[in-house]
Write a structure and sequence with these properties.
The longest helix is centred in the N-terminal third of the chain and has 16 residues. A hairpin with an 8-residue loop joins strand 4 and strand 5. This protein is of the alpha/beta class. The protein folds into two domains: 174 residues, Carbamate kinase (3-Layer(aba) Sandwich), CATH 3.40.1160.10; 153 residues, VC0802-like, CATH 3.30.2130.10. Helix content is 34%, strand content 26%. Helix 7 packs antiparallel against helix 8. It contains twelve helices and 18 strands. The chain binds adenosine-5'-diphosphate, aspartic acid and magnesium ion (MG).
Length: 410
């Protein structure tokens, strides 16, 4: 008998029939002799609808973060009750748990809270009593008991973190695709499903736009060595196993091509080229919780230099304001930006022992007439910032070159 954590995303619980389908899968696992904890998202469209309500009441202005979390966490609360009812309808006992009830303790960073610890007593008690635990994804409680949420897509992280805390054998991520693909299958018709992928690669893919897993869920799984199995809610077949690197037979040079379409670029010109300038520019941004991604600083000319960086588009106006403020304090105010930037990336463990992936990527983009504005690399990833309107074209051509064209994988 094993302990299995299963997570079902929004589409998988999108209507009553689908919730009943989930109940059947959960009950089948239980009847195969396993203990089951099942983590669910809000029904598809529900979280977006709640966010739209918040926007409407606040007339586009910022919402109170505390009340935003109280509101958006209700989506999952609905699903846990409905699924627990459906499971009981099939003759197994089940109990639903909200974030507070399951001991999901987070910090107080509303809307993007981080898990601090998980008190597992309540779930263990229910499992010992033979119950199936149905837990709400995406939500937790802070030290003062306020409801918090973990950021969009956060149910993956709830499920994986709980699986780690309980010492589960596996965390199964059921979703609307049957595994992790070499590119978003909705964007690239020739995307191929991977049987196995290493934690490191999945982490990079998730961080550069493969939304099939929230990045923090992969971090938890990697830290605890917990295998993840990403698979379809609608078919029985095996999907993709996310496992330690040594368990992946084939080390592809490029195992995935991704893009994020929600970037913005800011440039600050003529800043004095002196020690401490980068800290003065970027400290206010990090204090405001704005995550800066790519950064380029040009060679100094006449004692001054230019800095260009990217931020999430949602943070663009605030970041621009802070950049203006910082550069005014430095005696210059030559700041501008562009909101229509996409980041396109290729990821693969095989890059560790294959040179030339970056240059091949640049050549492929050049051939399509796509101008590269910024570049960043890691050991197993190359990312470029480009004009957003070319993002899909870039992903498709890079996928064709690196994955459909097998020369690159030798
Ligand atoms: P859920 O609601 O189940 O959490 P998500 O919508 O968050 O599902 O994630 C699944 C979606 O991720 C798929 O429908 C697919 O369009 C998208 N996706 C993006 N990149 C990839 C990839 N490399 N492999 C598989 N799916 C991907
Ligand atoms: N319901 C939340 C969202 O839509 C969390 C999740 O589905 O993972 O972002
Ligand atoms: Mg998701």
């Amino acid at each position: 008998m094993a302990l299995i954590v299963q997570k079902f995303g929004g589409t998988s619980v999108g209507d009553v029939a689908r919730i009943k389908n989930v109940a059947e899968r959960v009950v089948a696992t239980r009847r195969a002799g396993h203990d089951v904890v099942v983590c669910v998202s809000a029904m598809s469209g529900e979280t977006n609808a709640l966010v739209a309500l918040s926007d409407a009441i606040n007339e586009g202005g910022p919402a109170s973060p505390r009340e935003y979390d109280v509101l958006v966490s209700t989506g999952e609360q609905k699903t846990i009750a409905l699924l627990a009812m459906a499971i009981e309808g099939l003759g197994e006992s089940a109990r639903s748990f909200t974030g507070g009830q399951m001991g999901m303790r987070t910090d107080s960073a509303h809307t993007r809270a981080r898990i601090e610890r998980i008190e597992t007593e309540a779930l263990r008690g229910a499992l010992d009593a033979g119950e199936i635990c149905v837990i709400a994804g995406f939500q937790g409680v802070d030290p003062d008991g306020h409801i918090t949420t973990l950021g969009r897509g956060g149910s993956d992280t709830s499920a994986v973190a709980m699986a780690c805390a309980l010492g589960a054998e596996v965390c199964e991520i059921y979703t609307d695709v049957d595994g992790v693909y070499t590119a978003d299958p909705r964007l690239v018709p020739f995307a191929q499903r991977l049987d196995r992928i290493a934690f490191e690669e999945m982490l990079e893919l998730a961080s550069v736009g493969a939304k099939v897993l929230q990045i923090r869920s992969v971090k938890f799984a990697m830290r605890y060595g917990l295998p993840l199995h990403v698979r379809s809610s609608f078919v029985e077949d095996e999907g993709t196993w996310v496992v330690p690197e040594e368990d992946v037979m084939e080390r592809l040079v490029v195992s995935g091509v991704t893009c994020t379409n929600n970037e913005a670029k800011i440039h600050v010109r003529n800043v004095p080229d002196q020690p401490g300038i980068a800290a003065r520019l970027f400290t206010p941004l990090s204090d405001a919780g704005i995550v800066v991604d790519m950064i380029i600083q040009n060679l100094s000319r006449d004692g001054s230099t230019d800095v260009t960086f990217t931020v999430p588009r949602t943070d663009y106006s605030r970041a621009l304001e802070l950049a203006h403020q910082a550069s005014r304090e430095m005696g210059c105010d030559d700041v501008g930006g562009d909101e229509d930037i996409a980041k396109v990336s290729v990821v693969g463990l095989g890059m560790k022992d294959h040179a030339g992936v970056a240059t091949r990527m640049f050549a492929v983009l050049a051939h399509e007439g796509i101008n590269i504005q910024m570049i960043s690399t890691s050991e197993i990833k190359v990312s470029v910032a480009i004009e957003e309107k070319y993002a899909e074209l870039a992903v498709r051509t890079l996928h064709a070159a690196f994955i459909e064209g097998d020369a690159a994988q030798d």
